[in-house]
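Q: Sequence in, structure out?
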Amino acid sequence: MRKRREGWFLIVLIVILIALIFLAPSYGWKLRTWLSPQSTGQADDPSLAAQNEALEAQIAQLESVVTELPTSTPDYVRAMVYSRYPLNFKNEILVNAGTNEGVAQGDAVVFQGILIGTVENVFADSALVQTVFDSGFRIPVRVGTGGYDALFTGGTSPLAASIQKSAPVAADDIVYAAAPRLPYGLPMAVVESTTTSPDNLFEEANLSFAYDINAIETVLIAK
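A: Exactly. Output:
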C-alpha cells in the first residue's frame, strides 16, 4: 500500500513538473533545478575557466624560477627571459624589461651573482642581451687573487686571453669583470686550464661556467 502511494506521488509530481515547464517555464525550471543534483556551475563558466588557466600558468612560472630569485635587489631590475624554443642560441637572450623600467644599453646582466652579458639593444618593455657566448663580446677582466690583467673573449668557448706569461694563473682561479660601466669585481667564470697563445706571446685560460645559459629564466640588470 505504501509503495503504491509513493508511486502515485511520483507520477503526480512528474505531471506537475511537465505542466509547469510548458505553462510557467520560469517556475518549472526552478523546480527542475531544485530537484536536480546540486552543482556550483564553476566548471561550466568559460570566464572562470580562463582565469584558472591564467593563474595556473603564473603559478607554474613562479615555481620554475623560485630557485633563481635573489634575496635582495637594491641596485638591479629583475627581468624574465623570453623563451627561445626551438632556437636556443647562446649568444643572446631577450628579457621583459626595458627603458620603462630604467634599463639602458651597456647595463650589466647578472644571474645568481655572475655576469652573463650586457644589454645590447633596449626597447620600451624589453631588451636584447649580448651574452658572454657571443663572439663579439670582449671586456677587460682580472684573474685570480693576484688580479692579473686579461681580455675576456666571448664565443662558443670563451677565453681569458692576453695574460702575461709571468702571471701565475692556475686552474680554479676566478675571472671577474674589470670594465668601465660594469660593477667592478663581478665573477664571470673559473679557469679550467691554461695554454700559450698561438703567437707565443701570452698565456690563455680556458674557462668553465657554473650555469647553462639556455636554462636561465630570470636575470638581474644593473641600474
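The helical segments are 2-23, 25-35, 46-65.
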